[in-house]
Specification:
Length: 430
């Protein structure tokens, strides 16, 4: 599909490094103009990327972040006792939410990809230490739908990723995973839920497999970690996926997604904190004393920690339930609306998360052409392949805009039918 940038940066006369300073008022205007070139996430035009609930919550996010805008996460517990206290509160709240047993551990990371990188790095370091190997070619076994950040992490770490075919309803298939495991497997990786279809891998079954084979089992709940507990409480059919499930070794859950923190906020949680010794980087061998970091970043935004702490306190369970309700009700009404349009159908089952997708049931209705038309109306379509489908990742912002979307979608379907348009998949939508 033709997703060329809506403007050409070379026409913006960006020039060289500014010689003289420009007044803030001018820069502010320019930022507003630049923002107008983007998809309008506040009007629900984006699948995820942005998480907005209310102006009041935005105010809390901004103020808490701004309060700690100069502080550095690198100095947590050294220079900034306050950041350490807030982090520990966040860890305790997450232990509660995800049924962590006594003795669990946690690390605050920069985002989902960072949490996943560190889960894999910790598992690899442990295996190396236990086997007494300086080097080894290891592998991680996962359903095909695992987020690309797993493969990115594995590239950094020289680990092979074995993506196995999906089973029923496009969930991970435990038999395929079991068959792909060998003596060099260091981790089973499941998603709760996986991003392409919003479905949970069979976490309980994979937990059993991990225990049988004595393997690390990481559950990637980056997307849904802060939605699922609340959606479940509201009665949605969310399967068990967290530390309640025996065999789950670690969990990644992003605060900067459905946790409504400011970007740069995720958690990596361990059932047993003793494994964190394989994660921590400790260095003394230079002239500036010991340098210790749990994860990849050195300096990191203190504001992210303060905002995460403030948002969790501000919302509480009540607030998160309200957000989950808006998110899930928006999702279901969106799915119901799409299913009323002839020639389109949503994947099933639904209701486990706020991600859904729909495909064409009519060979004369090209779904990629539908996606391209939607783009001309200002909606950034998420795309699935195999089968081609439009994917939506719904947040609390979307509910009020569902009818606008459906109206444009009906126009898109009419247009594609009447012109027999064909779309192409030739640009990034993610
Ligand atoms: C399941 C899953 N894991 C990991 C990630 C990566 O998260 P981030 O973009 O914060 O690095 C995502 C992002 O959507 C995701 O959906």
């Amino acid at each position: 599909m033709n997703l060329t940038a809506p403007f050409d940066v070379t026409t913006q006369h960006l020039g060289g490094f500014p010689k003289r300073g420009v007044p803030w008022a001018e820069i502010e205007q320019e930022l507003k103009h630049l923002k107008s070139l983007d998809y309008d996430g506040r009007a629900g035009k984006l699948p995820a990327y942005m998480y907005f609930h209310t102006e009041k919550l935005l105010e809390v996010q901004k103020k808490a972040y701004a309060e700690y805008i100069l502080e550095n996460g690198l100095g947590t517990g050294v220079a900034f006792r306050s950041l350490e206290i807030m982090q520990h509160a966040i860890f305790r709240w997450a232990f509660d939410l995800f049924h962590a047993p006594e003795g669990a551990g946690a690390t605050y990371t920069a985002g989902g990809s960072s949490s996943v990188l560190d889960a894999l790095r910790t598992a690899r370091n442990r295996v190396r230490a236990e086997r007494g190997e300086a080097y080894g070619i290891y592998n991680v076994v996962t359903p095909f739908s695992a987020h690309p950040c797993l493969t990115k992490s594995a590239q950094f770490l020289d680990v092979e990723v074995r993506r196995t075919p999906l089973g029923e309803h496009r969930r991970g298939d435990p038999a395929a995973i079991a068959a792909a495991i060998d003596e060099n497997t260091i981790m089973i990786y499941g998603s709760a839920p996986a991003y392409p279809f919003g479905l949970f891998d069979p976490i309980e079954r994979l937990g059993e497999l991990a225990l049988e084979r004595n393997l690390w089992f990481h559950v990637d709940a980056c997307w849904g970690g802060f939605l699922s507990p609340f959606a479940k409480k509201l009665g949605y059919p969310v399967p068990n996926w967290d530390f309640e499930v025996p065999g789950v070794t670690s969990i990644s859950a992003d605060i900067h997604k459905h946790g409504y923190g400011v970007k740069g906020a995720s958690l990596l949680l361990f059932r047993d904190k003793s494994v964190q010794s394989y994660q921590e980087f400790v260095f003394h061998d230079w002239h500036r004393g010991s340098y210790v970091t749990p994860s990849l970043p050195g300096s990191s935004p203190g504001g992210s920690i303060a905002a995460a702490y403030a948002v969790m306190k501000y919302l509480g369970e009540e607030g998160y339930l309200e957000i989950a309700k808006a998110t899930m009700e928006g999702t279901i009404s969106w799915i119901d609306g799409v299913n009323t349009i002839e020639g389109l159908k949503c994947f099933e089952p639904i209701g486990e998360s706020s991600i859904f997708g729909f495909y064409s049931t009519d060979s004369s209705l090209d779904i990629l052409a539908v996606a391209e038309f939607m783009q001309t109306r200002g909606w950034l379509p998420g795309l699935n392949t195999d089968p081609y489908a439009i994917q939506q990742a719904v947040t609390a912002v979307h509910g009020p805009f569902v009818n606008n979307y459906l109206s444009d979608l009906r126009d898109a379907v009419d247009h594609v039918r009447s012109t027999n348009a064909k779309g192409a998949l030739n640009a990034r939508t993610y």
